[in-house]
Write a structure and sequence with these properties.
Chain lengths: 416, 416
């Protein structure tokens, strides 16, 4: 009998964790991804703010899976899925499957204002991060060269839209870049004059965290001189700046961290989805009516015990990937299926800046230096590959000691 | 009396060394560069072959010069020089100077075949290196996905044109990538089947080195399974491959390392130049008839004591930059000018691969492991910035121990 073919689309946290769980199984596994690297997305904002290099938070998928001879990696772009013929269509051929795992993640959502993307880029992959890094660093260069004071101020104004973890981390990191790392680098401007504005339509920062931690994060942002504007959505974004409610703010650099939308997998699958594009799945993460198709991570709408959607964070995707691998192994071996998926929440963390973070473990809530140390520890230990761990640790130590931030390179073509 | 204004165009080895030498001098110094980083060009081929990350061999110019308050950095593109009005024209204004130092380096020369540039890119800056890295890594991906054997072989064939130090280093590094670093990463292809062909029109590799070292380099290339083709120039380069003399070679990846041409400074200055575009300068590196304009590094044609042109290498540029700074300091202080510039050759080095290099000190010639250790030592110790030195050293150690090469990321848009 031919070995069953398992196709995994997407090598993010979910897909990779499924692939790891299937290493050595009696099946031929193919991982398809548009990019050749797995990205440690929680640290991507540090690439965008010139704290880390891309190679420090990304690893080639092939390298990660090199020791799993039954796992094949295909660098290609998925165009569609044929559920009847059980094939995945990529750019120049069709890949047949017996079991399918869809873990394609999410992308930015501009809530219908797609034209804003070119002026307010979001942060999902390394090219995004390098582009934002170029914009931020070029803004300081333009400010240094500017002659009119209002132009200079516009170049020194940075707006981050959305105060979830990514927005808070971005705003904090830009503030540290301007107020600390760059402070001696310019002659005509003082980078400390930079204004960093964090805009949030809701009533508080980090809305998914308990209120006491939102307040702690708010205080940390104040200490970093980040201006926080709550309760009013952005009504306009253009090349000159943003409009918040009816207040106009001239700003050369705008970063979008306000919303994500599941990738187009629901459409490929012709499946039911929620307002954020997430595919509705059953308790074993399979597509209803299709027990051999699984959807997980940010692409899926999975519910917790109380019927609330699970958050779009790495631990959910990783646990789901491991679950699907376990389930498939049981099925291939003719063993009973494991009980329905249940997310074990070990706590959530968000960082604001140097020695400032918040941590929510349910039974205990932390903020300040202790939360930050914990955050650093957790992120370093989760980074894939010993080399990365070591280099990131050294980089952090070095930045911490010298207040110098490496990787401040402006590369690529200037799209501004 | 107003402080004299010194403008330095270019922050390569020459320009930066002049700026360093003028730190604290009684003059306002402006360094103009199109890019925000100084590049340690001798290691650029390692970025192109996925051994190092860009940030490990580049540093922001502002960071390097932050402790020199009389030195100003301007990120801008020079469009021309007006010798009469003594101004440098950049994109949106004019920068006046009293003294001018031109150190704009060199770019690739395709000997009249400019159309070859798009299929056989050269290696001068980080964007070039990232583009070549993408082409090399994508070639393996395409080979893995290819179904026809002749297509697969074409993707696994890499041609490096020109066997000077850069060409030899590139060919050796691609061979190591294919034969060692990637060997476990693929399932359909064996990266060890990759063919790496080094083409040189002249009769030997490393033509600028003594013959005995050319032979040693040739033996090292043989050990790395690099095919060396001497004595025949490339007559055609296109999207499918190259023609060497009348021999056709199908190859998806071609890298140009055959020739450089001085940047357009001679034209800006309306100056005499040689066939390679280098500006003819006097014994004090000044432009004949213009004692306040200096040209140095790869942009200049400087002669040694025997009337032979100095090579386009970093030590020449650095010594020339330091000389011009010394000369200007003397002039500003009303002291006698230093004697004419004289290049002190401390030796030349080229590396072929792991534990293979050649070194020529005139009085002694080395090859093999000892030359390689020396090469590593010299390059690490010359890298600007302690952080880079430490990280590069760790990276090398790590690659050496594990035969793993980091930084294998495919980023940017695919221009193939």
């Amino acid at each position: 009998m031919a070995r069953p073919r398992i196709v995994i689309i997407g090598a993010g946290f979910g897909g990779l964790s499924a692939a790891h769980g299937l290493a050595g199984a009696a099946a031929d596994v193919t991982v398809i991804d548009r990019r050749n690297y797995h990205l440690f997305q929680p640290l991507l904002y540090q690439v965008a703010t010139a704290g880390l290099s891309p190679a420090q938070i990304a690893q080639p998928i092939r390298s990660i899976l090199r020791r799993a001879p039954n796992v094949n990696v295909l660098l290609d772009k998925v165009l569609g899925i044929d559920k009847e013929r059980r094939t995945v269509t990529v750019e120049d051929r069709e890949v047949p499957y017996d079991y399918l795992v869809v873990a394609t993640g999410a992308r930015h959502s501009y809530f219908g204002h797609d034209a804003w993307e070119s002026v307010a880029p979001g942060l999902k992959n390394i090219d995004d991060a390098i582009g934002i890094r170029r914009r931020i660093l070029m803004a300081f260069e333009h400010a240094e060269a500017a002659t009119a004071p209002e132009q200079r101020q516009r170049f020194l104004t940075f707006v981050v839209i959305g105060a979830g973890p990514t927005g808070v981390e971005m705003a904090g990191a830009i503030a540290e870049l301007a107020h600390v790392a760059l402070r001696h680098d310019f002659r005509s401007i003082n980078p400390r004059d930079a204004r960093i504005v964090l805009v949030e339509a809701g009533p508080r920062v980090l809305p998914a965290f308990p209120e006491v931690l939102s307040e702690a994060a708010r205080r940390s942002l104040d200490r970093l001189h980040v201006e926080v504007r709550l309760g009013t959505p952005v009504s306009q974004c253009d090349g000159e700046g943003v409009t918040i409610g009816d207040h106009r703010l001239q700003a050369a650099t705008v970063v979008w961290a306000a919303g994500v939308m599941a990738s187009g997998a629901a459409q490929w699958l012709g499946a039911d989805k929620d307002g954020a594009g997430r595919v509705k799945i059953g308790p074993d993460l399979s597509l209803p009516g299709h027990p051999k198709i699984f959807v997980l991570g940010d692409t899926a709408l999975a519910l917790d015990g109380d019927g609330r959607p699970l958050p779009g964070v790495a631990p959910v995707a990783k646990q789901q990937g491991a679950y699907v691998a376990r389930l498939l192994r049981a099925r291939l071996a003719g063993l009973p299926a494991p009980p329905p998926f249940r997310y074990r929440n070990f706590g959530t963390l968000a960082t604001i800046g140097r020695r400032a973070a918040v941590a929510d473990f349910g039974w205990i809530k932390l903020d300040g230096t202790l939360a930050w140390l914990l955050w650093g520890l957790v992120h370093i230990s989760f980074l894939i590959g010993f080399r990365n761990r070591l280099v990131v640790m050294l980089d952090w130590l070095w930045s911490y000691v010298t207040f110098q931030s490496g990787a401040r390179l402006i590369t690529g073509s200037d799209s501004q």
